[in-house]
Amino acid sequence: MPNFDGGHYFLTALIPISTGLVTNSTGTIISPIQKIRNALATLPTARQTQATEATGLNSPFSRNLRTHFARFVVVEDVAYNGRDPVDAIEMALRAQFLGANPVTPQHQDRLEPCPYLFFIADFDAVSGAESELVSYLELLWKAMPEELTEVLAPCVGFSEVSDAAGFARYIQRCQIETTMPFNDYWTTSPPLKSYGDLLFGVLGIGVVLGLVVAWFIHPGFWISLAILLGGLLAGAAAAIALVMCLGPRPFPAAPHSDLPSVLKALYLQQKFTQLVIEVQGAGEEEIHRQFGRFIDQHAPSQPTPTQPPGVVHS
Fold it and tell me: What is the pTM of this model?
């Protein structure tokens, strides 16, 4: 289930952009894709640098405490990576004896019939059920309806969206399967169950069944060998089917990998680093006193105080 892994849902959506003409806030007629670019250019980003901190603004996605990452990208067409490589000697021989033309145009993928707005979001989820996607999208709309409307208004069919439920349905219609989820919160190996014994058991059952069949029908040596190999192949096929069935299962969620816990961890990391700097050279009693004050002030076991979302330091 590539859309869900490790306690996080990875939403990917390709939203078609209209190809007509629209009017911006100043009354100027522009293309829909340019209007989206203008909206994205003025959409506040998270406070990740000194320049963005100086603006006093923050990303509207920070109003949603389930969003780890989110991004909009205008995709006008797929990138052209050049011609597919061919064997030079083979092509020379085909050109010489078969009249093949080495510069004949090859098939080129195109994104049709319009440009698209690429939207991705990584957010907290428990099971990856559709209801969790719907609840996230509805909460996202309630947190930033004006910004979403400004960005998505030039997209095909968005004029029908008027509420949170409509927004969730709209994004779901544009959703595509995520093929490469990003998960970076496990600091140790996940506690995955080993199925090695089960796989070898399935292979063994295939061999045993082959032996039993050969025993009951009493064929010749070569037929018995063929039956045994057939049982082995059947066991191998069953083992492969089992791997394909178990493989799509999502990884378990890493401990404390939801957004509130991550923000609290970042907050404590910064405050504790400052404490270590301040107590350098101090005596044991002073260090003990300062650490007690740290516990009382920053409450490691409590959700607050914590780092605000969308910033790199508290």
Answer: 0.80
